[in-house]
From TrEMBL:
GO terms for molecular function: nucleotidyltransferase activity. The keyword Lipoprotein does not apply. Its EC number is 2.7.7.66. Residues 7-77 form the Phosphoribosyl-dephospho-CoA transferase MdcG N-terminal domain. This is Phosphoribosyl-dephospho-CoA transferase. Keywords: Nucleotidyltransferase, Transferase. It comes from Acinetobacter calcoaceticus.
Length: 200
């Protein structure tokens, strides 16, 4: 059965053998360490998947692709909501607050970005300044009133969040959806487009 791969999924199995010769040294070091890569939105041939590689520094992001046949493990953002928070003492309080807030707004959500990476690998990447990147699966329209309430709840809790709505058609920033009465930017594999109703 063909793996269903979506933006923000973490994948293991990428090696330096699949890099082009001009890939930076830090990218090779990351892969030699066995770190996962993250699925990104881009068109590739059917046997490849577009991925991004993250380094330890914020600006270290590298776009490439890997063969589907090389994938040894896949982890979706929502799987990371079930990790044992006791393993992450320095994050435990924030994780608990995030979980209690998100449960009121969505049944299917997960961690992406530095939080997701650390929860998946145990490699410390989150700092006090790190935004909390979250993803909400939104097969059905997510009400603007609900979006505003969710953002306000996080603000009151003193947590800086960056939440993406994952629609069947692509990705949408929750902040933009909550604050914009006109067209919003829908991110798709073919490129981003401005739409009035992203669920249409």
């Amino acid at each position: 059965m063909k793996l269903v791969l979506e933006a923000h999924d973490l994948l293991w199995g990428m090696t330096v053998d699949y890099l082009t010769d001009d890939a930076p040294l830090w990218v090779k070091e990351v892969l030699l360490r066995g770190d996962p890569v993250v699925v990104r939105r881009a068109i590739t041939s059917a046997d490849q998947v577009a991925v991004g590689i993250r380094g330890q520094l914020r600006h270290q992001r590298y776009a490439t692709q890997m063969p589907r046949s090389a994938i040894t493990k896949q982890l979706k953002p929502e799987a990371l909501t079930h990790v044992n928070t006791q393993q992450f003492e320095h994050l435990a309080e924030r994780l608990q607050t995030i979980s209690s807030i998100m449960k009121k707004f969505s049944e299917c959500w997960g961690y992406t970005g530095s939080f997701g990476f650390e929860l998946a690998t145990g490699i410390q990447t989150v700092t006090q300044q790190s935004d909390i990147d979250l993803l909400i699966r939104a097969e059905q329209p997510f009400a603007k009133k609900q979006a505003i309430e969710l953002l306000e709840t996080f603000q009151q809790a003193g947590l800086s969040v960056d939440i993406q709505l994952q629609l069947p058609q692509g990705g949408l920033a929750l902040k933009e959806w909550a604050r914009n009465s006109g067209k919003v930017l829908l991110k798709r594999a073919e490129g981003a487009v401005l739409v009035e109703n992203p669920w249409n």
